[in-house]
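Amino Acid Chain and Its Fold in Token Form
===========================================
Scope: a single protein chain, as residues and as a discrete description of its fold.
Amino acid sequence: labelled as such and written in the usual single-letter residue code.
Position: the record begins directly beneath this header, with no further notes in between.
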Amino acid sequence: MSAVTGGTLSRRDMLRGSAASGAGLLWPGVAHSEGGAAGLGDIAAKAGILFGSTMDKANEADPAYAKLFDRHTKLIVTENATKFSFLQPHQGVYDFSVVDGVLDYAKAHGKKAHAAALIWNDDAPNWLKGRPGREIERIFDAHIERVVSRYAGRFISWEAVNEPFFPVQGKPGGYRDGPWFAAMGPSYIPRALRRVASIDKSARLVVNEAFCESNHEWGRANRPLFKGLADRLLDDGVPLHAVGFQSHLISSWSYDDHAFQAYVAEFGARGLDVYLSELDVNDEVLPEDNAVRDKMVARRYQDYLTAVLAVPAVKRVVTWGLADRYSWWRYMTWEKSTNAARLARPLPFDDDMKRKPAYDAMARAFEARRA
């Protein structure tokens, strides 16, 4: 998602903040205990779903949060660490430390790992802007070569391209604007996929998109564009194994889960796997009372997942964080006011790492898929 309704921050700015909040910073006075909840990853696995969540560090500073990952995930996703601006904040100067930490954690705890947003037009460091097109192409190729060569065989999949479309920007074909599109047009997408595939021959390749799950005007505009892109890539023999739908479910937007279910099935009919890649529920307009709000959030999880998981092509569910205190929506609340009394509660576990109704809703949806 590039922006939040009513906000002015770019998503890149928001994610920088969430990286800081998710990197092991603690809030005082919080007792950590999740109770005896069965592992979501185990429940999902019985239904043929690989369940995971995002991490930017091994969370050594918060053992209780790491414990949630130990018990509930089968897949670790790099929240920010494999994005261009985080890997190469200055030209030619790479920082692999966070990626290495995530992969070390995954290996030590028997988890699979997925790399998010390798190429994303909305994620461009200042040093990249204004460069000639040929130089942008060279940087593009060199970056993919350097990063994928370093980690070939360690990620089971690469999100080679993130968010290719954003029609409200008015660019030809509805594509999202940014340095890669400006230099190469839509060809940057197959170029990225082919280049990653030539280096890491074992990994699955993914293109990820925002908004499609909603009936908001952005979702309605993105759906045919994204499906058309997938069809063209497949028809042209470009390596593509799966598509991702972010699934940031925004409480102020309208949804038709069964219409989206039918849309998702179209990708499965082309032989593609489908990943729900950044799942959470924005509760900004829901009632103040936490108990009431948590039940409404849980209902949104259950309705959405029950509908979409009925499509056999759906193979992964990834939440964008596990506990509320590490959610990017929480960071957004603090951006508006550091003294905010109402804090976002979008995830299956609360600030104390205890399970919420959303956990039970997800478990029921996984079990319904199994049945």
Observations:
- Confidence is low (pLDDT under 50) at residues 1-33.
- The radius of gyration is 19 Å.
- The chain is about 40% helix and 15% strand.
